[in-house]
Design brief:
- This protein is mostly helical.
- Helices cover 72% and strands 4% of the residues.
- The chain has 16 helices and three strands.
- It has a three-stranded antiparallel β-sheet with strand order 1-3-2, with no helix packed on it.
């Protein structure tokens, strides 16, 4: 609702001194009906986000080869480590950060949703650049996407219990569940398309990567129009958005190494743990919360996205610099033995151009 001060105008009702569209007139103040522009824009944004996200998830499915995926399922140790990082470390870290910084319950829920989100296609690209295990990266992304259907509601139920029991917030499980179910269909279709038409799947994958970038920009621009007050961001959310991905990368790498994974797999698990599907988080948040709640939470996925890309770029720069300095010396490059043990695997075939020169 907005209030305007009366001034003579031909469009006004002569008997009351108010505009014809006014619903209440008291003296010289007229109360006008609220414009429904924001409501229409919100519906349009929700629809467009859902369609674009479906395209992104469809393209992600086009990156999955059934034989390689089933091979990792039959030898699931790497995927199990990734599962523990994705749905063990990340939600717990999100809960600890939310309690430590004493943020609003609705903000804590969004932080937890981010922690429960699966990895995105960006982690697959970065895994390629850091000579990671591409088969493991794609398999972890696929498994975490499918398992999020059950694990995200379960983690939210466990970690939000203190706020739900106190009556401070109600978790929209139905909306979250609907959003997650909608993801399974495009991913499954993408896997089928890659199996039947692998060449066309590669084209679709490129389109999906571009769509993902457009989706992030669209969320930022339209969200800035819809939820202008959301850009008045508390310093606590900036700090959490910075620490959260850093903790994911570090703890994922550490746990993978403790589990006895090779160096290139440790890098893969670290990226899959810290790099979340922020487009999915933004879509779930947009579809699940009221406009009043969105005013205080909408920007967090964007903050997380900024820092996860920034830290990933720093790690990539450090790795490339290290490889240039030590990559030509087998004795100084600790993963040369690891690479030799998988020389017959698809990792060597896919990433052969990125292996250190053996001179």
């Amino acid at each position: 609702m907005r209030v305007t001060i009366w001034a003579p105008n031909p469009a006004m009702n002569n008997s009351t001194g108010c505009s014809a569209s006014a619903t209440v007139c008291n003296g010289s103040s007229c109360v006008l009906t609220e414009s429904n522009f924001n409501n229409i824009l919100s519906v349009v944004l929700s629809t467009v986000l859902t369609i674009l996200l479906a395209m992104v998830m469809f393209s992600m499915g086009c990156n999955v080869e059934i034989k390689k995926f089933l091979g990792h399922v039959k030898r699931p140790w790497g995927i199990c480590v990734g599962f523990l990082c994705q749905f063990g470390i990340m939600p717990l870290t999100g809960f600890i950060l939310s309690v430590a910084f004493d943020i609003l319950p609705v903000q804590a829920v969004v932080v937890l949703i981010m922690g429960c989100c699966p990895g995105g296609t960006a982690s697959n690209i970065l895994a390629y650049w850091v000579d990671g295990d591409m088969d493991l990266s794609i398999s972890m992304t696929t498994c975490s996407t499918l398992l999020a259907l059950g694990m995200m509601p379960l983690c939210l139920f466990i970690y939000t219990k203190m706020w739900v029991d106190s009556g401070t917030i109600i978790i929209p499980f139905d909306n979250i569940g609907t959003s997650l179910v909608a993801l399974v269909v495009p991913v499954s279709i993408g896997i089928f398309v890659n199996h039947k038409w692998p060449h066309k799947a590669k084209i679709i994958l490129k389109i999906g990567s571009i769509t993902g970038a457009i989706l992030i920009v669209l969320i930022a621009v339209v969200g800035g129009i819809l939820y202008q007050s959301a850009w008045i961001i508390a310093p606590k959310l900036w700090i959490i958005g910075m620490l959260f991905p850093l903790a994911g990368y570090s703890l994922g790498f550490l746990l993978a190494r403790i589990a006895g994974q090779s160096w290139h797999r440790c890098r893969t698990v670290a990226l899959e743990t810290g790099m979340q599907n922020t487009q999915l988080c933004s879509t779930i948040v947009q579809l699940s919360f009221t406009q009043e709640e969105l005013n205080v939470v909408f920007t967090f996925p964007l903050i997380y996205s900024i820092f996860q890309l920034a830290f990933a770029g720093i790690f990539l720069g450090i790795y490339v610099a290290y490889k240039k300095c030590h990559g030509k010396n087998d004795m100084e490059f600790p993963e040369s033995k690891d690479i030799e043990t998988v020389s017959g695997s698809s990792f060597s075939k896919v990433n052969g151009g990125f292996q250190p020169d053996n001179k």
